[in-house]
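Data card: per-record layout.
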Amino acid sequence: MSGWQTSPPIVFPQPSSLKIGLVMPYPVSPKVGLSRLRRFRLFSPILAGATLRERLIACLGALLAIGFTGVISGYLFGQGPHLPLIVAPMGASAVLLFAVPASPLAQPWSIIGGNTISALMGIVAAHFIRDPIIATGVGVSLAIGAMSFTRCLHPPGGAAALTAVLGGPVVAGWGFFFPFVPVALNSCILVGLGLLFHKLSKRNYPHVVPKPAENTHQTIDLPSAVRVGFREEDVDAALEALNETFDIDRADLGRLLQQVELQATIRSNDKISCADIMSRDVIAIGEAAGPAAARQLLLKHNIRTLPVKDPEGRLVGTVGLRELSEGKETIAHAISRPAVARPSDAALSLLPVLTDGRTHAVIIVDDDYRILGLISQTDLLSAVARLLPNDSTLISVA
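The structure for this 398-residue chain is written out next.
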């Protein structure tokens, strides 16, 4: 179970597929020689979040996609000298599509629209300007402007514009059809293959930014998790102050900053573990019990979450009064997927799930998914209260 990555609590429907979702934000390792190790390691990415595994996947994706794009284009339009099978900008598009699929510059419309519109701008420049040197500059500048206004900025589009201007007799012979065949055709095939590859490799493409947290109580108040800390206007002000353009979606930037703020808070208070604050005398019920028995336990002990165990004593889910009010015949039909953590996890790493407006408790389990304890919202609030400084300044956690 070593080498975990930090993430919010994950819920699991089956004990047999145990993966604890809440983990320590940073692996415990000696700091001596760490900078030296980073200096001499073989793979040192220049982009944040990149890993060697992701780059190898990108290499495989580009290999398959570029190869099949050429094969399909050749099959549809022949392989004669009258038309190139695949234009050079597709190679640059493949780099973005497979190496940085979350980039706004690598999304389907950016690739298809950016390459096609840029090639069209290059054709227009070459048609009206006879000097190729001037035509190349005008074509690329028009491409940048057109891509910006049509929200499909794509760096390989500049190469598509240059190809349209300097492509020689083959491009000139196709004239205004060149942006569509082969540029648009290549782009559509490449994107289609990219969509298939990313789906098979379980990557998020097209990149969809998760929806902002919503108030589950259906009121106009902001969700409790985002009432304290920086806001959208703060991100806008920071971007304006830096006066630079960054290759990241603005919503992704906000999510990243929120996660950085959370991780800093967890790291600063990682001495308090789940084992330190969890309730150990956990009220639970077997999955064969009836709804009436579960309801009686919830009311008797004044709790909102009741863990459900299988005959072997392993956690299979939780029930609450909401689930029991739906008229299910047995508890097995009313079970919700549980949020779980390990005893050694940092207590403050439970903040995201216990402030989402839906989850009232996190079940602490061992490697066999047996219940060791439970941490409620009250337990976590008490732990946070102990961390407050003397001047009662609130801890800012998004």
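Known properties of this structure: The CA atoms of residues 75 and 85 lie 9 Å apart. Strands lie at 285-286, 306-309, 315-319, 340-341, 361-365, 371-376.

See the next section for split statistics.
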